[in-house]
Design goal:
Residues 1-24 form the signal peptide. This protein has helices at residues 3-26, 43-59, 74-81, 95-104, 140-149, 164-176, 188-197, 207-215, 263-276, 280-289, 298-319; strands spanning 32-36, 63-67, 89-94, 116-131, 155-158, 181-184, 202-206, 220-224, 250-258, 292-293. The model is unreliable at 3-22 (pLDDT under 50). The protein is 45% helix and 19% strand. The chain is built from eleven helices and ten strands. It has two domains: 3-124 and 251-319, D-Maltodextrin-Binding Protein, domain 2 (3-Layer(aba) Sandwich), CATH 3.40.190; 126-224, 3-Layer(aba) Sandwich (D-Maltodextrin-Binding Protein, domain 2). Strands 1, 2, 3, 4, 5, 6, 7, 8, 9 and 10 form a ten-stranded mixed sheet that branches. By secondary structure, the chain is α/β, with parallel strands linked by helices.
């Protein structure tokens, strides 16, 4: 190879190597697609849209929410996992993508630990144990005594098999040695409706979906599955306070991109996400949902996700829950 050819080859290689860095420095230069693996109108979708608007103002580019529901979030997650790692396709990821599905499905089209870049956590909202107002138990102690005295005779609702609400009750059952029968629904709304109507006496209900009916006394809230009392429901004790330790149950969300995102792109998105938490519109929406913002680093979000997967894997296995 002569000197001119060698220099041209080296220059070409340097340009290729520098391309991701250059793109990162210019990021974002076009519209960003934010994939939500749920239908429009639900809590995950609403949170993504309010954050997308707040982040648009600092990123300087439009962020369009793209709803890709189906297969317990696997359709949307797989789409992002296989996207070009340039920062223009990101994902709202929750317990299902990050902690549950690898235990619920025999095989996933992606690896939640290896096929994504962790960008940042969004927040978490606890799940609360609620009963119909006419249920014989008026407090948690009475509820526990009642279900222990009536094994298998008390039903509980959930938005579906493998949902955080379903698994929260399975963890509760494992911790308390109780037997309560699962009645799965297709979504949180019909499950809540039947608990409010008394067709099913109880469920674990997330604050994002159920805070208005909790505060409106349409259901009785017996305990909340958070590490501390919720400011939205300050008079409701935690499960630890009523004698059920190590039973923190919450749904969490964060943002992922495909594996291989340039570090500068990750830093830009993470910084703008953390700044968005301080905007009035985002703060109000989080308060409406009883949601706790989780500003932090990508590494902290990854650590939370892996810890939750390890925590829930044995519960899923013990309960024998499979979605395929």
């Amino acid at each position: 190879m002569d000197r001119r050819t060698l220099l041209a080859t080296l220059a070409s290689g340097a340009a290729v190597a520098a391309a991701p860095f250059a793109r990162a420095q210019d990021y974002p230069a076009q519209l960003i697609k934010w994939v939500v693996p749920y239908p429009a109108g639900g809590g995950t979708d609403v949170i993504a849209r309010v954050l997308a608007e707040a982040m648009r103002q600092t990123l300087g580019q439009q962020i369009v929410v793209d709803n890709r529901p189906g297969a317990s979030t696997n359709i949307g997650a797989d789409l992002v996992a296989k996207s070009k790692p340039d920062g223009y396709t990101i994902l709202s990821a929750d317990n299902a993508v990050l902690a549950f599905n690898e235990h619920l499905f025999g095989k996933l089209p992606f690896n939640p630990e290896k096929d994504f870049t962790y960008i940042g956590a969004i927040g978490k909202f606890p799940l609360a144990l609620v009963v119909h107002p006419d249920f014989p138990a008026k407090n948690f102690k009475e509820f526990l005594a009642y279900v222990k005295a009536n094994p298998g005779k008390v039903n509980y609702a959930s938005p579906g098999n493998g949902s955080p609400h379903h698994l929260a009750m399975e963890m509760f059952k494992a911790r308390t040695g109780t037997f309560i029968t699962h009645i799965p629904y297709r979504g949180a709304a019909p499950a809540m409706a039947d608990v409010m109507g008394g067709q099913v006496p109880c469920m674990f209900l997330d604050l994002a979906s159920g805070l208005p009916i909790m505060q409106g006394n349409k259901v009785r809230v017996l305990a909340i599955g958070s590490g501390a009392r919720s400011k939205a429901l300050p008079n409701v004790p935690t499960l630890a306070e009523v004698g059920v330790p190590n039973t923190e149950v919450f749904a969490f969300q964060g943002i992922l991109g495909p594996a291989g995102l340039p570090p500068a792109v990750v830093a830009k998105l993470n910084g703008d996400l953390n700044r968005a938490f301080g905007t009035p519109a985002v703060q109000k929406r989080f308060d409406d949902f009883g949601m706790e913002a989780m500003p932090g680093t990508p590494a902290q979000f990854a650590a939370l996700s892996r810890a939750e997967s390890k925590r829930w894997g044995p519960i899923i296995k013990q309960a024998g829950i499979k979605l395929d």
